[in-house]
Design brief:
By secondary structure, this protein is α/β, with parallel strands linked by helices. It has 2 domains: 5-132, Enolase-like, domain 1; 148-423, Alpha-Beta Barrel (TIM Barrel). It is 39% helix and 17% strand. It contains 13 helices and 15 strands. The chain has helices at residues 70-84, 92-103, 113-130, 135-139, 179-201, 221-234, 269-283, 297-307, 321-330, 340-343, 346-358, 376-384, 397-413; strands spanning 5-15, 21-30, 37-42, 148-149, 151-155, 168-172, 242-246, 253-254, 259-262, 265-267, 285-289, 310-313, 335-338, 362-366, 388-390. The strands form 3 sheets. It has a 9-stranded mixed beta sheet. Strands 1-2-3 form a 3-stranded antiparallel beta sheet. A hairpin with a 2-residue loop joins β9 (259-262) and β10. α9 packs parallel to α11 (346-358). The longest helix is centred in the middle third of the chain and has 23 residues, at 179-201. The two termini are 28 Å apart. The relative contact order is 0.15. Bound molecules: 2-phosphoglycolic acid and zinc ion. The site of 2-phosphoglycolic acid (PGA) has 11 residues, from loops.
């Protein structure tokens, strides 16, 4: 970004896939050989959020049901623009530091993490445009690793109007040889899954949740996992697929009683860990996200040790280097779910990823349930070389935009493109 000057910053409300407003930022850099170049980025939004996430600014009141973001848009157009216009920054890190300093709060609650992240991401895009490079290349000159997708085919929890308490039932196409083949396999399984659900549960089972997965009216997680297995077998991919869950368990945990309720049955922490170990054994599960409450570092450590599989911290870590450091100390989880809007600047998110991989944790780059058609996380996952992405079912524009961007990147990378497949925990 050096020698480039911030020439213009603008922002507006646009709609996300739930029809709710979010922030879109345009940022123009001037002074490079190409003249003024613009970067544009949209800010995603979660529904099953962690309590330690950076604070998204919403307007409240009656406009857009309280979800308006005119305050955050106003912060970008007003205070942030006044602070940045005409200035040059040596690096993304310097710009992000200036944004954090201007906000002055630990969780970005004054200007809004949605205002700050929009500027941070738009600046990264503008810097890439100034170098005539795709974003993944501008961020990492050696980027070549495509991600294994964790494809969420059955939705529950806060993402669906069904009875499943676990949020995501996921297939991982580890036997595929490329991104394109991974999508082909996942799509074929999804089509077969639909054909199994329809006669058994009726038309309503084909309704989809926030991330595009089906919502059959069932409550038993074993039944959901059984359906995935059935679809995989019928589609002809037995042995080519492994399985994952995002339990998002803070949302079915009662902090007062210390009890988790799954399919109407109460579980203590130890009983739930036992239940996960059974599911891992019975269904070939190789990754579980947020198996326990977001404050239960100890329980995470116990399951990580006992299971040997990938245990992912989403609400636990909230992409926050300080929370992650706390986890590393006790061996809580062995994988970081990486969502840029949980922390609010690109540099801080990169710090969290670096800290994770430095400690031998894997990194799973993730969408939010509230997305726009902006595919920026596809460039970011390749830039990080993280080797895993979670971006929903391969249906509906806000999810397919990410997959389609990955297909473009795979083609651009040509022979250097590496799809990790079964090596997803060691993608390099
Ligand atoms: P969210 O869910 O975007 O609604 O927070 C995604 C997840 O829990 O992984
Ligand atoms: Zn999650």
């Amino acid at each position: 970004m050096n020698t480039l000057r911030i020439g213009q910053i603008s922002a507006r409300e646009v709609l996300d896939c739930r029809g709710l407003p979010t922030v879109q930022v345009d940022l123009v850099l001037e002074g490079g050989p190409l003249g003024p170049v613009m970067g544009r980025a949209d800010v995603p939004s979660g529904r099953s959020t962690g309590i330690h996430e950076a604070a998204e600014l919403r307007d409240g009141g009656s406009r857009f049901g309280g979800f308006g973001v005119l305050g955050a848009v106003g912060a970008v157009r007003g205070e942030i623009a006044a602070h940045l216009l005409g200035r040059t920054f040596e690096s993304q890190r310097d710009l992000d530091a200036a944004l954090c300093e201007l906000d002055g709060t630990p969780n970005k609650s004054r200007l809004g993490a949605n205002a700050i992240l929009g500027v941070s991401l738009a600046a990264a895009r503008a810097a890439a445009a100034a170098r005539s490079m795709p974003l993944y290349r501008s961020l990492n000159s050696d980027a070549h690793i495509l991600p294994l997708p964790l494809v969420n085919l059955i939705n529950g929890g806060k993402h669906a109007s069904g009875e499943l308490d676990f949020q995501e039932f996921i297939v991982m196409p580890v036997g595929a040889g490329s991104m394109l083949e991974a999508l082909q396999v996942s799509t074929e399984i999804n089509l077969v899954l639909g054909s199994i659900l329809l006669p058994r549960y009726g038309k309503s089972a084909l309704n989809t949740g926030d991330e595009g997965g089906y919502v059959p009216q069932i409550s038993d997680p074993r039944e959901a996992l059984g359906l995935l297995h059935e679809a995989v077998d019928k589609a002809g991919y037995t042995g080519e697929i492994v399985y994952a869950l995002d339990a998002a368990s803070s949302h079915f945990y009662n902090k007062e009683s210390g009890i988790y309720t799954v399919a109407g049955k109460g579980y203590s922490r130890d009983q739930l860990i036992e239940f996960y170990l059974e599911l891992i054994e019975d269904f070939g599960i190789v990754s579980i996200e947020d198996p326990l409450d977001e404050e239960d570092f100890e329980g995470f450590a116990e399951l990580t040790e006992a299971s040997g599989i990938q245990i992912v911290g989403d609400d636990l870590f909230t992409t926050n280097p300080a929370r992650l450091a706390q986890g590393l100390e006790v061996g809580a989880a062995n994988s970081l779910l990486w969502k840029v809007n949980q922390i609010g600047t690109l540099s801080e998110a990169f710090d969290a990823a670096r800290m994770a991989t430095g400690a031998g944790y894997t990194v799973v780059v993730s969408e939010r349930s509230g997305e726009t058609e902006d595919p920026i996380i596809s460039d970011l996952v390749v830039a990080l070389g993280a080797g895993q992405i979670k971006t929903g079912a391969p249906v509906r524009g806000e999810r397919t935009s990410k997959y389609n961007r990955l297909l473009q990147i795979e083609e651009e990378l040509g022979a250097t493109a590496t799809y990790p497949g079964r090596s997803f925990r060691k993608p390099v």
